[in-house]
Amino acid sequence: MAARRILGAVLAGGRSSRFGSDKALAVMPDGRTLLDHAIAGLAPHVEKVVICGRAGCLADRPAPDMGPLGGLNAALHHAQAHGFAGILTTGCDMPVYPADLPARLIGEQAAILEGQQLLGWWPASLANALDAHLAEANNRSIYGWLDRIGARAVTMPGLALPNINRPEDLAAL
User: Could you read off the pLDDT of 121-135 as tens digits, one per residue?
Assistant: First the structure.
């Protein structure tokens, strides 16, 4: 049986309103950006990493400013068009990606790390369903999407991951 082709996607299209500047480009204490850390965390687990929602990267689908689902939708369609089985995702504000997380997430259905909805596994076959979801009158909440598709929530007791939303979160690292 051939190995599954897996795409990595960093969801980086947010407005960074709580951060006050483009947090994807915020510099960590080691001199690398949050975006660099997110890419490095995903890279060992995937064939290719794409960035969603930034200029020069995969544009949110079907339109800009749709939140993380716009970036996820772009990545799902990219995965489907290029023969990937699915996508592992992370947010640009997630500088740590647990090495054993992919083995817990990847399966037949979508899955997320409980409490960190952007750390997820999304089969490429969900592309058309997400198009339909985004075309409807809804609040585009990732929670609504997770409920709609019956995503699994994976727990990793004792795991505490930093999530950078404000400058003081970055400073606390």
Answer: 999 999 999 999 999
